[in-house]
Specification:
about 160 residues; alpha+beta; three-stranded antiparallel beta sheet; 7 strands
Length: about 160
Amino acid sequence: MWNGVHSICIWIHHLKGANCPTTCGANTTPAQQAAALNAFIDQDDYLSSHRGQIAERFGAVNPWYHSMDVRILQDIGFRSAHRLQISLDILNFTNRISSDLGVRKVASSSATSPLTLTGWDTNGTPHFNFTGPSQTYIDDPGLFSRWRMQLGFRYLFH
């Protein structure tokens, strides 16, 4: 977790239903924060299987991503030693078949730092607010999650 100054290890909360001992603001109670934190931990395979432990650095990884590319290539000969080659490439063809396929899942930026340090009590115990999202991974809106098509021409001669 990044606290704005340096990276710190994060302990994965192990008590379900426990109230967070923190000042939560006007719209959220400690019980609501605890419920949101527990729901966030439960929906993530890595976090839920490591409750009560310190999270390993790079312990959780993005889900596997499947993609298939298709290329159609045609040579057209003319004259004895000259050819025109036409190609059609469809990148991430799986996403062309269905918009649910070929979509990368990445950790949302708010999921990588789900807690905000709000202060310290008189004993030196840190207090945090849960400010993370409801789920760790979101659909990547970048080019790798979209199908793309390109048309190519190549003139070959000997």
